[in-house]
Amino acid sequence: MTTPTSSRGRRRAPTRIERAAGRAAALQKPRVILALLLLLALTCVMLLDGYLRAEVGGDQRVRTGASSSKVPDKVLDGGPILTFRGGQASTVSVPSKTIALTFDDGPNPTYTPQVLKILEQYDVPATFFLVGSMVSRYPSIVKTMVQQGNEVGIHTFTHVDLSYQSDARINREMQQTQLALAGAAGITTTLFRAPYSSETDAIDNYSWPVYKKLGGEGYTSVFVDTDSDDWKKPGVSKIVKWATPSGTKGAAVLFHDAGGERSQTIKALPQYIKKMKAKGYTFTTISGVIQKRSTTNQQAAAANTGSNGQTTTGLTEAGVTGTGTGTSTGTGSQPGSGSGTVPNGIAPNGEGGTTPNSGTGTRTTTVSRLQAAHRTATGMTLYEGKALIVAVAIAEWALPVLSGLLFVVGIAVMGRFGMMLLIARRHYRLRNKRRFSWGETVTRPVSVIVPAYNEKECIANTLESLARSTHPIEVIVVDDGSTDGTSEIARAAADKLGMYNVRVIRQENAGKPAALNNGVRNASYDIVVMMDGDTVFEPETVGHLVQPFADPEVGAVAGNAKVGNRNTIIGAWQHIEYVMGFNLDRRMYDLLRCMPTIPGAIGAFRREAVLGVGGMSEDTLAEDTDITIAMHRAGWRVVYQEHAKAWTEAPGSLKQLWSQRYRWSYGTMQALWKHRKSLTDKGASGRFGRVGMPLVVLFQIVTPVFAPLIDVFTIYSMIFVDFEAALLAWLAVLGIQLTCAAYAFRLDKEKYRYLAMMPLQQLAYRQMMYLVLIHSCITALTGGRLRWQKLKRTGEVGTPAGVSG
Predict the structure, then answer these.
(1) Nearest in space to 451 (alpha carbons), one of 537, 521, 408, 514
(2) What secondary structure does DSSP assign to 498-556, as a single string?
C-alpha cells in the first residue's frame, strides 16, 4: 500500500480506513489460496474415486481373435505358469492330483469374506489375483487373506487389457497395485495374471510382448487349465462339473470372488472342495506348485547325477518346458526396487530370494512355502502404499457424503426456484390489484440521507435525480471525511440546481454506519430514506417508497435496486442477478414476512424505529442486513416496494466485484451470527428467527457453498462418464433458471435481451460468486475481520432518463 502524498509533496500518514484496507489485503491472499485448495482437493478426491471405479482412464477394449504366430509353441502347449528365467520362457504344469485354486477380480466386500471363510473351514489355501483399485478400497480383506495363508497376485489396477496399453500404462498398473498391496498387507508379489486371459494357448502376438516385459522384470504370469465359468452363473452343479479336471490331471482352476453376483460360486465352492478331496486331490497355491515341481526336479537331477556321474542342467522333469537359469535386473515395476536383482519366479525351498530394498543392496527373507511369491514391503514402498490406502479411504468416505450433499443442494436449488416462482407470482398479483392500498396516502415530507465518501464522480448525479423528486424531501449529505472535495461538489451542485432543501454535514472519517447515524440524528422528519452516494432515483421513487408507512406496523421498506451500468458483460451479469436473485427473493421474503436485507442503495425507515434499535451498527460489514434483522426483532414489519426504483453503479471490474461481494457475504454471516438468538425469540419478533434465518442460511450460505458440487460433478460426468447425458442435465437446469429469470424480468418489466448472457453467467460469473462465498466462510471460520472497502466509481450512471433499458 502506498502512502498518500499531500499537495505540498509531503507524505502524510494513511487514514484509519486506508490502514485497515492494507491489513485486510494482506490477509486475503492466503484465504483465497485456501479456498482454491479446497476446490482442488474436491476435484482430486473425485478423480481418485473415478480412477478406482475405472471411470477415469478406463479402457473397456478386449482383444480377441488375434494371431499367435510369434508365440513359441512350447509356451502355447505348456503349463499355466510362465516364467522367464535367464531371459528364456519356460512353463510349469500342475502335478497330477493337485489343484491350484485361483480367484480373480477381488476383493469384494460381500463375496470374498465368504470365500475366505469356506477356505478356512476346509483348510484349503488359494491364490487370489487382485485388482489394485479393489485392494485399495478394501484393504482389511486383503490383510485377512494373507494372514490366513493364502497367496496373492496382481490382476492390474483397473482391470484393463494390457495388450492395448503403452509401457508407461503397464508400469503404472503394476506399480499402483503393488503399492495397494503394500499399504493393505505390507507385502508385494511376483505373481501376475492378465485380465481376460485364459489358457496359455490363447496368448497372441499382442499380449506376448507384455508377458516378456513383465517376465524380464521378475513376474511370473499365471494362466488356467480349467475354468469354472462361474461368471456365467450356469448353476452350482455345472460350476462344479466345469471346474473338475479330467482323470487325475492337476490343474490351475479359475473361480471368481468378485466382478458380479457370485452367490452360485459361494454355494459351489464347498461342494467342489469336498468332491476333489474325495478323489484324492490336494490343494495348494501357485508357489506351492512351483515348489513341488522344483523339489521333483532336484530329486530327478540327483538321480541322474548318481546314475551317470555327471550333473544335468535345466529342468527335465515332466511338466516343465524350456531351459535357462539366472536372474534379470528389475526395471522398477515392483515398488521398492532400486538397484539389485528382482527374483524370477520363486526360489526353491520356500526362500523368497533376493528382494531389493528402497536403495541399493539386497536382503533375504524367508517366507511361507505357499506364499513364496510375497515380498515384505519396506521403505518408501510401504509408506506410499499406506498413503494410498488413506487417500482412498478419504475418497470412499467423502464421495458418498458429497453425493448426498449434491442431492440436498439439488433439491434446495429446485425448491428455491419453485418457491420464488409461486410466491413471487402471488406477491405480484396482491400488490398490483386495483384495489390494493397501504392505507391513506403518505404525502408528508421525508428526509433523504446520502452518506458519501470520495464520491466526486457520482454525487452531482445523485442530487440531480433527487431534485426531480415529486415527493417533498429534505436532503442530508453526510461527507464521511472525503479527501476528493465531495462536500464542495455537493454544495455546488445543490446551488446550481436551486436545491435549498440540501444540507451538507462533514465528519471525521468513521465509516458508513456512523455517517448514516449522523444523518438520522439530524433528520427533520419522522421517515428517513437512505441511499448510496452513487445512486440515482426516479422522480416517483421517494413517493412510492414511503407509501407502505401508511400501515402503522411497517417499520422499514426495501426498494427495487437496478444496475445502471448494465451494458458491459460484468454489468449485464449483475443485472440478471439483481432482477432474478435479489428482487425475486425479496418478493418471496416479503410475503413470508421475513425480509433479511434492505438494500443500502434504496431503503426507508421510521426514524423512531431506527433509534429504537440503537441505530446503524458498526458490529458487522453488512449494516443493512444488521438493521433489517434488528427491526424484525423489535416487532416491526419490513416490506418490499417493487415500484420504488433506484439506479446504482455496480462494480465495473472483477476485482471490485470480488471485494464488494466478499464484504456482503461475510457481513451477512456476521449479522446472522449476531442475531442468532432470534431463533429462540417468541411472538412476532421471533418470526425472522423461525422462518427467515433458516431460509437465509439454506439459500444464501449452505446451498451456494456446496453448489460447486453440481458443476464439478457435471464436468466430471461430461469428461469421464456420459457427455451427452451430463450435457442434457446441465441444459435442463439452465432451462429452469432461464424460465425463472424470464419470469422475474417480466415482473420487473425488463428487456429480455440481457438473458442471452445467462449461459455465460452460469459458466463464469456464478463460479466466482461461489469462490467469494467459500472465501467468506473461511474468513469467518479463521476469525478474520474486515473493514469497509471503498469501490472505485466512474459516475457513468446518470439520471434515470439516461439509463438504457
Answers:
(1) 514
(2) T-TTEEEEEE-S--HHHHHHHHHHH--SSEEEE--TTEEE-TTHHHHHHGGGGSTTEEE
Contact 528, 447 (CB under 8 A): yes
For residue 775, indicate whether it is catalytic: no
Torsion 275-280-284-290 (CA) sign: negative
* Mean pLDDT score of the chain: 82
Residue 723, Cβ neighbours under 10 Å: how many?
A: 11
The count of other CB atoms within 10 Å of the CB of residue 111 is 22
pLDDT score recorded for residue 568: 86
Sheet with strand 554-563: strands edge to edge: 502-507, 473-480, 446-452, 527-530, 603-606, 554-563, 637-648, 535-537
Which residues are within 8 A (CB) of 70 and not within 5 positions of it... i.e. 6 or more apart? Answer: 205, 208
Residue 187 pLDDT more than 60? yes
User: Are 131 and 328 in contact, with CB atoms under 8 Å apart?
Assistant: no
Q: Locate 260 and state its grid cell.
A: 458380479
User: Across the strands, what pairs with 153?
Assistant: 129
User: Do the beta carbons of residue 89 and residue 319 sit within 8 Å?
Assistant: no
Whole-angstrom distance, CA of residue 557 vs CA of residue 797: 24
The one catalytic residue in 155, 256, 544, 632 is 256
Q: Tell me which H or E stretch contains 351.
A: strand 351-356
Distances (CA, A) of 198 to 74, 102, 211: 17, 12, 14
pLDDT confidence tier of residue 803, bands split at 50, 70 and 90: very low
What's the rounded Cα separation, in Å, for the pair 702 and 774? 10
Q: What is the pLDDT of residues 401-423, one digit of tens each?
A: 777 777 887 788 888 888 888 88
Name which residue leads in pLDDT, 181 or 732: 181
CA 331 to each of CA 169, 175, 198, 334, 350: distance values in angstroms, whole numbers, following the listed order: 14, 11, 27, 8, 24
Query: Which is it for the CA torsion 664, 666, 671, 677, positive or negative?
Result: positive
- Report the greatest alpha carbon distance in the chain: 131
Across 282-310, b (16+ Cβ under 10 Å) vs e yields ebbbbbbbbbbbbebbeebbeeeeeeeee
Whole-model pTM?
Answer: 0.65
Most confident of 353-357, 500-504, 666-670, 730-734: 500-504
Distances (CA, A) of 479 to 453, 493, 770: 6, 14, 34
C-alpha cell at 670: 456476521
Tell me how far apart the alpha carbons of residues 494 and 502 are, in angstroms, rounded to a whole number: 7
pLDDT in tens, 324-341: 333 333 334 444 443 333
| Percent residues over pLDDT 70 in the chain | 81
Residues 294 and 291: their CA atoms lie apart, in Å, by 5
- Cα 21 to Cα 16, 507, 539, 651, 789, distances in angstroms: 9, 20, 37, 18, 7
Whether 532 is catalytic: no
Round to the nearest angstrom and report the end-to-end CA distance of the chain: 39
The kind and range of the H/E element at 465 are helix 459-467
Angle at 197 between CA 192 and CA 202, to 5 degrees: 120
Can you give the three-state secondary structure of 191-240, one letter per residue? EECCCCCCCHHHCCCCCHHHHHHHHHCCCEEECCCEECCHHHCCCHHHHH
Place of cell 429480455: 752
Q: Could you say which of 49, 104, 225, 748 is catalytic? A: 104
Over residues 537-566, the mean pLDDT reads 93
**Residue 189, φ and ψ in degrees, nearest 5:** -145, 160
Pairing of strands 328-329, 341-342: antiparallel
516 has pLDDT over 60 = yes
Say whether pLDDT at 641 is over 90: yes
Residue 114, C-alpha cell as written in the block? 465368504
Which one of 51-60, 155-164, 291-300, 655-664 scores highest in mean pLDDT? 155-164
Per-residue confidence at 804, pLDDT binned at 50, 70, 90? very low
